[in-house]
Design goal:
The protein has about 725 residues and is an alpha+beta fold. It is built from 31 helices and 12 strands. The chain is globular.
């Protein structure tokens, strides 16, 4: 049945049943029932700057603080929680912690609580912590402890290198999962891409986990000093390596053609799926109505402000039920006005509350049903278009995720393929965990599983719908443009020789780099192929800037830097040595690409109904891997394309260059790894890079054969 706009009486009746879904922050406050300072601090950080927390939730949290914490704590709270509130709580935590470690006061918190508060101290007050350390220890003890930390860190990196270099290919596992799912769910399409973390991400992960481990050493150990055993026993290698290898499965076909049988329909997951399908069916008439109306602008000519607001409220009401409650920052469009650049987005529930108030306010005004100006019509239609876009994007979210809840357990646990579970019985793979995670800013959920492999490695699997896979890729590219995530390739470029030494060299270089870095290849081709008289004045200026940059910007041939290291002297002390090192682009660029790029493997089906248990394994090239890293939004920029072309040229000239020893050595030295460990890592990494892997097809017979060969090797 087609959607019909409600009258005022019908709409007011509809409003009686509208319930605003609480935000995730309000859920957190509602279930908070702790007297832990650490957990309170975590709550403060999570609800910081949320202006939409209801008065009822504010009152509840204030009352809990007054009954469960000292007065100094409850005085730290005001709404909205801001940086000043958090700083006041940090100051109180600092006083409590220092009183504990110096035994200068009696207090109500447990040793376990102090272990957690030390993490906050290490992050917020490292100097205060070191003051306490220096008071109780002499310089020789501190130096010995630092050497222990450095040794432990290098040994951890060494263990991680050994752990990862002993790995075998993961194509067998991917193929089994792929073919199993195709056998069980022939009416859906499943594609998968495997990846291996880049060296940069791996080292960052090790450093992050190592710092967490240092911060978590309890205060009782601070008094006796940190020992080598403390460091080794506290570090959990699996936390670093769980997602070193991974595979993303993205699924298409979860639509009107996807059906579940009667047995599944009776389960909790089946009922959830059918409920989500009913929700989608109920939303379709409104979606089609607004799509047609917005295409035909004359439809809205007689609309009043009240009618526009009615549609916006109904769209927001439906959107709050279509999205996940923990996704509280997914909307950033024309209805949302950010207060500052850190204000990422808002929830549809918060917007709904705002528009309900606006509707009730205007309901009493005389002009609520008067004709609108052309400018006002345009404003409201832009708002409707923005909401309709979100409506379309979220139409299948809950339906697709509910289907994943049915499909994924079958793939991982329940499926018997060819009368046996190949993952368990043939590949000796164990399922360690399977849980769902939400992306709060992008507004969707995915299912993550950790597998334990026979050689003690772990592998992370991520299952998501194809529409959200595309959305996450775009989100990743946008995320990579943040200051702390951006890969800066500008040092690879310079202007041609005739500009060197000129007064405005740096300005011209910066402008040329910026022009090509912000110009997608498609835009360059379009502008350069269009005659000037067909372009606007702005496009003509843009075209001239692109032509200048292409003509005069080039890739550097040589790179000079200071190589610094510490050398042990005969008396046992260390002396700092420096040396000027010059590397060529042929040495630097392959290593730069290797260091930043993950390793990707794509598996796709033959789509043969007679041969369901075969998938082709196609390894992506180094160029493809590096392009994934350099993408801006969903396109390659002209600047990135120049670097990719140079990398391809270098590889064609000398295919043996994959890792550059001097650059890798510098990376390891920057991470304070001792020289003897560096030599071992270098030899391992370089030998690994020279191995040649041939593409092959997988079927069950070959899988079993390879597993037998591996068993024989052991």
């Amino acid at each position: 049945m087609a959607y019909k706009l409600k009258s005022r009486e019908e709409f007011n009746e509809y409003l009686k049943n509208v319930k605003i879904i609480p935000s995730e922050d309000e859920f957190l406050i509602n279930k908070f029932n702790s007297s832990s300072l650490f957990e309170l601090y975590e709550l403060f950080v999570k609800i910081k700057d949320d202006f939409q927390i209801s008065p009822a939730m504010q009152k509840k949290l204030k009352k809990h603080l007054q009954t469960s914490f000292p007065p100094e704590v409850s005085s730290c709270l005001s709404f909205p929680v801001n940086a000043s509130n958090i700083q006041s709580l940090e100051e109180y935590i600092k006083d409590v912690f220092l009183a504990y470690v110096t035994k200068s006061n009696s207090f109500i918190y447990s040793d376990e609580e102090m272990d957690n508060l030390k993490i906050i101290m290490a992050k917020k007050y490292p100097n205060e912590l070191m003051k306490f350390e220096k008071i109780r220890k002499g310089s020789s003890e501190i130096k010995l402890e630092q050497e222990l930390i450095n040794t432990a860190f290098s040994n951890i990196v060494d263990e991680y290198t050994r752990h990862s270099q002993n790995s075998q290919n993961n194509e067998d596992i991917q193929t089994v999962l792929y073919t199993t799912s195709k056998n069980e769910f022939s009416n859906i399409n499943i594609s998968t891409s495997a990846r291996q973390k880049s060296p940069k991400s791996s080292i960052d992960n090790i450093r992050k986990e190592f710092m967490k481990m240092l911060q978590s050493i309890p205060p009782s150990n601070l008094r006796k000093g940190v020992t080598y055993e403390d460091l080794i026993n506290s570090f959990n290698l699996s936390k670093v390596s769980d997602d070193y290898y991974g595979s993303t499965f993205y699924i298409t076909g979860i639509d009107d053609t996807f059906h579940i049988n009667k047995e599944i329909a009776k389960t909790k997951e089946g009922k959830e799926f059918l409920s989500c399908r009913k929700q989608k069916e109920d939303n379709l008439p409104l979606f089609h109505f607004l799509s047609d109306a917005l295409d035909d602008h004359s439809y809205f000519l007689d609309f009043t402000q009240e009618e526009y607001l009615q549609l916006e409220i109904e769209l927001l009401d439906r959107l709050q039920h279509m999205t996940f409650p923990e996704c509280s920052e997914e909307y950033n469009g024309v209805l949302f006005k950010p207060k500052n650049e850190k204000d990422i987005g808002t929830s549809f529930s918060k917007l709904l509350g705002t528009y309900l108030k606006e509707y009730q306010t205007h309901l009493k005004a005389d002009d609520f049903n008067q004709n609108l100006s052309y400018k006002e019509h345009i404003k409201y239609q832009k708002e409707l278009s923005s909401l309709l876009k979100e409506f379309k994007n979220h139409m299948n979210d809950k339906l697709e995720f509910a289907a994943l809840g049915i499909i994924v357990p079958h793939i991982l646990r329940d499926t018997n393929f060819l009368s046996e579970n190949i993952l368990r019985d043939q590949l000796d793979v164990k399922l360690i965990s399977c849980k769902q995670k939400a992306n709060g800013r992008k507004g969707f959920r995915a299912i993550f599983a950790i597998l334990e492999l026979p050689d003690n490695r772990r592998m992370e699997l991520q299952f998501m719908s194809y529409s959200r896979f595309k959305g996450s890729k775009i989100g990743n590219y946008a995320h990579s443009k943040l200051d702390n995530k951006q890969i800066d390739i500008s040092p690879f470029f310079e202007l041609i020789d005739e500009f060197k030494g000129t007064k405005n060299y740096e300005t011209m270089l910066e402008n040329a780099i910026h022009t090509l870095d912000t110009t997608p290849l498609s835009e360059k081709r379009r502008l350069l192929s269009t005659p000037m008289h067909f372009l606007t004045e702005e496009q003509q200026i843009r075209k001239k800037d692109i032509e200048f940059a292409i003509k005069n910007l080039k890739i550097k041939e040589n790179f000079e830097y200071e190589y610094i290291w510490r050398e042990k002297q005969e008396d046992g002390s260390y002396a700092t040595k420096t040396e000027t090192v010059v590397n060529t682009i042929e040495q630097i660029l392959p290593m730069f690409a290797e260091y930043h790029s993950p390793k990707l493997v794509a598996i796709s089906s033959t789509h043969s109904r007679f041969n369901k248990n075969i998938a082709f394994v196609n390894k992506k090239t180094a160029i493809d891997n590096f392009r994934e890293v350099l993408l801006k939004t969903d396109e390659t920029s002209c600047l990135a394309d120049m670097l990719l072309n140079k990398l391809e040229e270098i590889q064609k000239a000398d295919t043996s260059i994959t890792l550059n020893e001097s650059t890798l050595r510098k990376i390891l030295q920057d991470n304070k790894i001792p020289n003897d460990k560096i030599e071992f890592i270098l030899s391992s990494a370089l030998s690994q890079s020279q191995k040649i892997e041939l593409p092959y097809t997988n079927d069950v017979t070959h899988i079993r054969k390879r597993q037998e060969e591996k068993q024989n090797e052991r």
